[in-house]
């Protein structure tokens, strides 16, 4: 597959990029290893100064990088600016907190193990390969890069092939901010180069955000070479609405959650599981909200829904909807692929989705919602957990007992009560089941790519 910028709003080719040669990849690996030697010798204060400088660059260049993201993958411009701002916040968070997150952990009573002192110490692993997706082309990378660099690791970015300009921006960001040359580099290579890079002994670990198929592949490559991986894969997140919920707020949030990033988000709500007592009013408000969204040019400030990022992505969403309709699902809005240029698909709400349909078990990566009717919290939990995925979940109820039960029994890496599933630099993020393993963000995320060294000291 070629590396190119193609405007998803028009389908027009903007620019092609050459793959790196084998010699250029080798030079990058050598530079990463050399930079690791230098970076690990620095302290948190120096790294924090550089990371804050990167945050300042992200703030100063927000409009430019937002326009690049919008051009490359169709994200509405306001959302692109918000993504860049969130990246700056994450950089400052790790600049402020990395030292405490990675502080030595002493054994309270070292005499229990016959020592004067005994503690666990976090040390960096080395160069880490990051295989990243196009849907949040800045945020997905920064949420790995900021903690990895603060821990003293170096990064090698293999970004998605349809966001090369964003990838190149990231490749230069940290060097411009003061990090040693080679500390973070973009590799414009195809997917077929990943195995060879992972096999290189200088690369110590890998992280991937992407499809289940890609995750299995990278995990297998890494496993053959005994290298750690962190995987954040797909999601088919449930959004549960119980009778005590604030229906107006739940319906408004449901629209935002399903259609954020043009519906192309792993943690977007996709399955709306609604108690029968409030099913009809929720459905009416939800459909009205979906219909009201303005779809159009993502560079237009008024646009709320832009195009899907790729032609193949839109074709897949349309095929999933067509399959559901053919098997008896009912469309309440959308469900028709528009004509004209660009890869647009309208906000769509379906009911009567059954296990015979692809939408029942597959993740749909576009603004398509399936609304289900249930009659109890037990039925809601069973349906919510009847998925191979387990990334996030949102539950709407003001009943404390229901809140506790859903938080305890939902199979998900995150449960949001009366709120939309999202990510914060302060909180660990990741999934269970086929949504992957390991965690990003928070204290847990920065520790993933560290060697936890046990230190025992006698007299």
TrEMBL record:
Record keywords, A-Z: NADP, Oxidoreductase
Pfam families per the UniProt record, alphabetical: Aldedh
Domain of life: Bacteria
Domain Aldehyde dehydrogenase: 3-455
InterPro entries in the record: Ald_DH/histidinol_DH, Ald_DH_C, Ald_DH_N, Aldehyde_DH_dom, ALDH_GabD1-like, GABD/Sad-like
Oxidoreductase listed as a keyword: yes
Family, as annotated: Belongs to the aldehyde dehydrogenase family.
Name listed for the protein in its UniProt record: NADP-dependent succinic semialdehyde dehydrogenase
């Amino acid at each position: 597959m070629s590396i190119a910028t193609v405007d998803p709003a028009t389908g027009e080719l903007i620019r092609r990029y050459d793959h790196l040669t084998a010699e250029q990849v080798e030079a990058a690996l050598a530079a990463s290893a050399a930079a690791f030697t230098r970076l690990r010798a620095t302290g948190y204060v120096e790294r924090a100064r550089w990371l804050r400088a990167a945050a300042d660059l992200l703030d100063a260049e927000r409009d430019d990088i937002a326009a690049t993201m919008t051009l490359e993958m169709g994200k509405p411009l306001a959302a692109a600016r918000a993504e860049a701002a969130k990246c700056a916040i994450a950089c400052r968070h790790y600049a402020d907190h990395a030292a405490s997150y990675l502080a030595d952990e002493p054994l309270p009573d070292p005499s229990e193990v016959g020592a004067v002192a005994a503690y666990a110490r976090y040390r960096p692993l080395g160069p880490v390969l990051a295989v990243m997706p196009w849907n949040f082309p800045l945020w997905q990378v920064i949420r790995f890069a900021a903690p990895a660099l603060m821990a003293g690791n170096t990064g090698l970015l293999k970004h998605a092939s349809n966001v090369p300009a964003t990838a190149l921006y990231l490749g230069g960001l940290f060097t411009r901010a003061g990090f040693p040359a080679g500390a973070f580099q973009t590799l414009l290579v195809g997917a077929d180069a990943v195995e060879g890079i992972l096999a290189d002994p200088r690369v110590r670990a890998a992280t991937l955000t992407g499809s289940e198929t890609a995750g299995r592949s990278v995990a297998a490559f890494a496993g053959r070479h005994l290298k750690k991986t962190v995987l954040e894969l797909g999601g088919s997140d449930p959004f549960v609405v119980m009778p005590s919920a604030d229906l107006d707020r739940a319906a408004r949030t449901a629209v935002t959650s399903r259609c954020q990033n043009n519906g192309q988000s792993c943690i977007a709500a996709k399955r709306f599981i609604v108690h029968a007592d409030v099913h009809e009013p929720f459905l009416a408000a939800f459909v009205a909200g979906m219909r009201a969204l303005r779809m159009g040019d993502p560079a237009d400030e008024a646009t709320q829904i832009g195009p899907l990022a790729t032609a193949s992505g839109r074709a897949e969403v349309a095929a999933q909807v067509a399959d559901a309709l053919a098997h008896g699902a009912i469309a309440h809005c959308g469900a028709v692929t528009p004509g004209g240029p660009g890869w647009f698909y309208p906000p769509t709400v379906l009911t009567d989705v059954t296990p015979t349909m692809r939408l029942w078990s597959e993740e749909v990566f576009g603004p398509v919602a399936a609304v289900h009717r249930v009659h109890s919290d037990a039925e809601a939990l069973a349906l919510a957990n009847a998925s191979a995925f387990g990334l996030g979940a949102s539950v709407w109820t003001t009943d404390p007992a229901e809140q506790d039960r859903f938080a305890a029994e939902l199979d998900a890496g995150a449960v949001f009560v009366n709120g939309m599933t999202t990510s914060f630099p302060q909180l660990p993020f990741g999934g269970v089941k086929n949504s992957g393993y390991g965690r990003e963000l928070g204290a847990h995320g920065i520790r993933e790519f560290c060697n936890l060294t046990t230190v025992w000291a006698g007299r």
